[in-house]
Amino acid sequence: MELTTAELARYLDHTNLKPDATQAEIEQTCQEAKKYQTASVCVNAHWIPLVKAQLADSPVNPIAVVGFPLGATSTAAKVAEAQDAMNAGAEEIDMVINIGELLSNNDTFVQSDIAAVSAAVHQENKLLKVIIETSFLNNDQIVKACQLAEAAQADYVKTSTGFSSAGAKVEDVALMRKTVGDRLGVKASGGIHSRQEALDMIAAGASRLGVSATVKILEEN
C-alpha cells in the first residue's frame, strides 16, 4: 500500500497518554498534529481544555480516553468521565471495556457498559471508540468483544491501550475488520513505530491508527 505523507497523516490519532506528560509536552503534541494535519490528538481528559484551545484553528480533533487504561471503573464513572470530557471539548471518546467481565463471559454487562457510554456520546453527536485490549484475548474473545461493541452501537473498535503487555498486531486488526465489516471503524494502537508498520495496519483493515511516534513515521523516507 502506498500513501502520501498527507494521506497517512489523516489516519493518525497523534497520542500523548504518558502519566508524566507536562503542559509543554502536550502543547508540543498539538503543534505537531497541526503541522502534519493528523486526524486528532488523543490525551487524558485533564488536558482536553488545553488541547481544544491549541487546536482551535485547525481541523484536528481532540480525543479523550475514558476508563483508561484498565477499564475496571464503574459504568456510571465512565459515563460521567465521557460527559465531562465532551463538555470540555472532546470530539471523540476512546473507552476501555471491562476486560475482566468479558473474560468472565458476562456479555450482558460488557454490552450494557459500552451502551451507556455510547448513548451519552451519541447524544452529543460525537464518536465512540471501544478499546478491547487484544493482548488479553484469544481470537474468539476478540470476535465477541467486537460483536458486543457493535451491538452497543459503538463507532469503532480499537486494539489496545498501549499500557498492556502488547499492542496492535496485524492479524488482530484483520480479524476485527472481518468481524465488523464496513459497519464500524477499526483503530490499531500500541507499538506502531514505523511507516511500514503503519501501512501494514491500514492494509489489514485499520481505518485509524493511534501512535505517539507520529513525527518519526511521517518523516521517514
From TrEMBL:
First-listed, main subcellular location of the protein, grouped into a coarse class: cytoplasm
Q: Which residues form the active site?
A: D94, K158, K187
- Respond yes or no to whether keyword Cytoplasm is given for this record: yes
Alphabetically, the GO molecular function entries are: deoxyribose-phosphate aldolase activity
Compartments where found:
Cytoplasm
Its keywords, alphabetically, are: Cytoplasm, Lyase, Schiff base
Supply the source organism for this entry: Bombilactobacillus mellis
The organism that produces this protein has a lineage beginning with: Bacteria, Bacillati, Bacillota, Bacilli, Lactobacillales
Question: Pfam families from the xrefs?
Answer: DeoC
TM spans, by residue?
none
Cross-referenced SUPFAM superfamilies:
Aldolase
Q: Can you name this protein?
A: Deoxyribose-phosphate aldolase
**Domain of life of the native organism:** Bacteria
